[in-house]
């Protein structure tokens, strides 16, 4: 994936598949898989009803065990269950790609803050910043204190094969692919970055409204933080 300059690369980048497989081994943890939907005609679409809060916590446990001790991982997770119909393997790939990219950007150490929140908006009200339509969503904010990216690099992140990492480094999944995977699930991603300060990736995914009550007690437009 595109993210950092070569000097920001770190040795664990090649272990992406190992990281995700370790996380997937925890996928039977109670509370993660809620129900199994009948296999659709398209075999590649393996969507389940899952709790994204549990899935994210599982991945962060893996990161805390395998990332360098110089990187402090700070989870700030929502108290709400974030229930969505998604492909769990794709979700793991999306978030592990973003976590590994953040790690690679902090070759001298730093902090990785991962926040989640439930967002509900009501038609006719003003949309909160970063929300492009009304509905009920999970928002994930991944912030690192790494080397950051220039405006030129940010503009090129849309290119399918663009990377700033050396050959053989990285997860093999570009951020353009991450963005497309998010969009296939009805969501979107925004990126903010400053050289020398770090980067923030914000992922928005729609929640499965059929699982929730018709209205949550969140007010007209509430961000749970």
Description:
- The chain has 225 residues and is α+β, with helices and mostly antiparallel strands.
- The chain has helices spanning 16-24, 52-66, 88-104, 151-156, 175-184, and strands at 33-36, 48-51, 71-76, 83-86, 110-121, 136-144, 188-194, 198-206, 221-223.
- Strands 3, 5, 6, 7, 8 and 9 form a 6-stranded mixed sheet that branches. It has a 3-stranded antiparallel sheet with strand order 1-2-4.
- A hairpin with a 3-residue loop joins strand 7 and strand 8.
- Helix 1 crosses helix 3 (88-104), helix 2 runs parallel beside helix 3 and helix 3 packs antiparallel against helix 5 (175-184).
- It is globular.
Radius of gyration: 17 Å
Kindly state the mean pLDDT as a whole number? 77
The number of helical segments is 5
What level of helicity do the residues show? 25-40%
Cα separation of the termini: 29 Å
Overall 3D shape: globular
Which sequence of SSEs, written as H and E, runs from N to C? HEEHEEHEEHHEEE
What are the segments in which pLDDT stays under 50 over at least 5 consecutive residues?
1-17, 26-44, 218-222
The biggest beta sheet reads: 6 strands, mixed
Number of strands: 9
Question: How are the SSEs ordered, and which strands pair?
Answer:
Blueprint (H helix, E strand, L loop, with lengths): L15 H9 L8 E4 L11 E4 H15 L4 E6 L6 E4 L1 H17 L5 E12 L14 E9 L6 H6 L18 H10 L3 E7 L3 E9 L14 E3 L2
Parallel strand pairs: 3-5
Antiparallel strand pairs: 1-2, 2-4, 5-6, 5-9, 6-8, 7-8
């Amino acid at each position: 994936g595109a993210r950092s300059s070569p000097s920001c690369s770190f040795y664990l980048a090649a272990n992406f598949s190992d990281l995700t497989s370790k996380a997937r081994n925890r996928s039977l943890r109670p509370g993660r898989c809620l129900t199994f939907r009948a296999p659709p005609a398209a075999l590649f679409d393996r969507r389940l009803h899952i709790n994204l809060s549990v899935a994210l916590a599982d991945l962060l446990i893996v990161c805390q065990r395998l990332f360098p001790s110089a990187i402090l991982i700070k989870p700030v997770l929502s108290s709400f269950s974030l229930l969505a119909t998604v492909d769990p393997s794709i979700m793991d790939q999306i978030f592990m790609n973003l976590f590994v990219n953040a790690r690679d950007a902090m070759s001298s150490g730093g902090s990785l803050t991962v926040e989640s929140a439930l967002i509900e908006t009501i038609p006719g009200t003003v949309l909160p910043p970063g929300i492009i339509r009304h509905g009920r969503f999970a928002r994930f904010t991944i912030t690192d204190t790494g080397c950051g990216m220039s405006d030129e690099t940010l503009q090129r992140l849309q290119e399918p094969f663009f990377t700033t990492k050396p050959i053989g480094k990285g997860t093999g999944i570009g951020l353009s692919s991450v963005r497309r995977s998010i969009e296939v699930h009805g969501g979107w991603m925004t990126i903010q970055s400053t050289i020398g300060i770090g980067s923030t990736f914000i992922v928005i995914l729609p929640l499965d409204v059929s699982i929730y009550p018709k209205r949550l007690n969140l007010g007209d437009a509430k961000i749970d933080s």
